[in-house]
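Sync notes, pocket subgroup
Present: LS, DG
LS reminded everyone that the earlier model was apo-only. Rerun requested with NAP included. Inputs:
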Amino acid sequence: MIELHGKVALVTGGSRGIGRELIASLSRAGADVAFCYRSDSGAAATACAEILEQTRRTVLAVQADITVEADRKRLVAETRERFGTVDILVNNAGSTEDGLAVRMTDAWESVLELDLTAPFRLCQLVLPLMMKRTTGRIINIGSIASRVGLAGQANYTAAKAGLEGLTRSLAQEYGRRGITVNTVSPGFLETELTANADEFVRRYVTEHSSTGRFVTPEAIASAVLFLASDDAWAITGQTIHVDGGLVKL
Ligand SMILES: NC(=O)c1ccc[n+]([C@@H]2O[C@H](COP(=O)([O-])OP(=O)(O)OC[C@H]3O[C@@H](n4cnc5c(N)ncnc54)[C@H](OP(=O)(O)O)[C@@H]3O)[C@@H](O)[C@H]2O)c1
């Protein structure tokens, strides 16, 4: 059982999918949890109510588009106002806008902005808080796309590969300040993000992963919780694949 009482966790994109399980798991482990969502306030309110019922703990939901600088600053400010600081940052929010590279226009910038630049800017906002306390955990949610290089996803693949590079660099820069930085890289999960994935992808995952199964949000949350814990102090700069054995390098 991971113990996170006294820690403050901030999760981006906590209203559904993987993030929804992350906020519930972090809250069950005793952390004070804040999360943001972009637009679906109904889903965010439902998540808060369900967690309150399950854990008797209040989580803070903040509407914030993390690609907007003012929203990022407000998200961190509201988290500090409610809980005092940020000990654990989970850069989870991300999206895809697929297309062939030769025809890709704005989708290049928008995916890099959400999946790579916004996580970096959020790290910049929380690192000073973590340095002051000489402790901190940053966990970036990557994707196996960074290793397998999916066709039609040049933007997403590049952003997630960049996130792994960012992870390694920040780990070097802040390790002596008691801050660890890691990437958790999921395989294929059934969420709204993958709702339109075609049958070929689903069949490929079950045929080629060692476990023959899709990954679950709970499996991702288990890895994130461990990396967020004090026991994981010696693990930094790493990419942990939680993909049922899909990537074999
Ligand atoms: N699902 C998979 O198979 C899979 C595989 C590998 C990696 N991943 C990664 O795992 C992470 C979560 O994926 P998921 O499948 O759980 O996604 P999802 O179901 O689409 O959920 C995305 C969450 O992010 C929020 N969000 C999106 N854009 C945002 C923005 N600009 N500002 C703030 N919040 C924003 C959404 O809020 P609203 O609903 O309000 O828009 C929602 O809460 C992503 O980084 C993704 O790349 C997923």
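DG: The beta strands are 8-12, 32-37, 60-63, 88-91, 136-141, 179-186, 239-242.
LS: The radius of gyration is 17 Å.
Action: DG to write up.
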